[in-house]
Write a structure and sequence with these properties.
By secondary structure, the chain is mainly β. The protein is built from no helices and nine strands. Helix content is 0%, strand content 45%.
């Protein structure tokens, strides 16, 4: 559904290749602890890493009312959306918008994957952000 890739919404956030997108994070050299988003490249305490593309739904909720603007920059025609935490395999838990799934089909522990998500900027241009969608092909 979200296959069109545009310029990423932020520098050093998204890694794109032939398999789709992944998120860029950092691993602290002293502790091996992961963090997202990635730390700046000049922070020598961290190494830049491509985070796992799949994980499991850890928790979720539905945003049923239009958030305050700013910071929300969406259109006036608001539609509820799901937001969740996904534990990326062997790394960390990230927060993101849940897409390509009905609210009633969401379940803690379901397999999820990172997918591109178009984001319309205030000037009307499109950028690529990320969403979290069910990983129906995972077999896990």
């Amino acid at each position: 559904m979200h296959n069109t890739l545009h310029v990423p919404i932020a520098d050093d956030l998204i890694f794109q290749d032939g398999d789709g997108i992944a998120l860029l994070g950092s691993r602290e050299r002293a502790t091996n602890r992961f963090c997202f988003p990635a730390r700046t490249v000049d922070d020598t305490r961290y190494d830049r890493v491509v985070l796992p593309r799949t994980g499991r739904l850890w928790s979720w909720t539905v945003q049923r009312f239009r958030p305050k603007s700013p910071p929300y920059a969406g259109s006036e025609a608001f539609e509820p959306y799901a937001v969740g935490y996904v534990e990326l395999e062997g790394a960390l838990i990230i927060e993101g918008r849940l897409v390509d799934v009905a609210f009633d089909d969401l379940a803690i522990g379901m397999a999820m994957r990172i997918v591109p998500l178009p984001f319309e900027m205030l000037d009307g241009s499109l950028r690529t952000s990320f969403g979290l969608a069910p990983d129906r092909d995972s077999g896990i």
